[in-house]
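Working notes for the structural subgroup meeting. M.R. asked for a predicted model of this chain before we commit to crystallization trials. I am recording the input and output together here so anyone reviewing the notebook later can reproduce the run.

Input as submitted:
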Amino acid sequence: MKILDKKIWTYEQIDEIPEHSIVLNGKEIEIMASGKLHSRWVGKIYKRLDDLYDTNYWLFTNEIGILINKNPLLVLSSDIALVSRKKLKSIDTKILEIPPDLVIEIEKEKEEIDIEEKINYYSSIGIKKQIWVLLSKREVIVIEDNKRSIYSFDDEIELLEGKKIKFSDVEKEVLK
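Returned structure, recorded in token form:
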């Protein structure tokens, strides 16, 4: 985790925070660039989600910033986030200041923040469902209503509104 400077960011400066950063306790942390495999996973999952949800949900990717806390300022980023269009009427250039309905995180070789810590932060702001794709174990962790379930890539995982995905099918697309 690389702290970029000694400046302490505040909520009032939130629109000035550089892209490709997260903020932990007011300190700007550089987001590590993703590798090719991670990038393919994000793209293939996004493609499936877009087909399933684009009418009812806004889909965000590319490390979308999510406000966790205003003071001290805490802004994390997610690989993929879905927010109901009923909850978020329009989009702009700013980070998300409301909790997404679903976040999907794909394990990186080097995480900026501990996975357990990020799970707890997401839960603290009321994100309904978290899906963590652990490439190294070919497992998927689903957190919903503070309950954790672990699945294999071959299991069908329910996303939102009863729609399901098999990560083994996504994996085939990623690797071809």
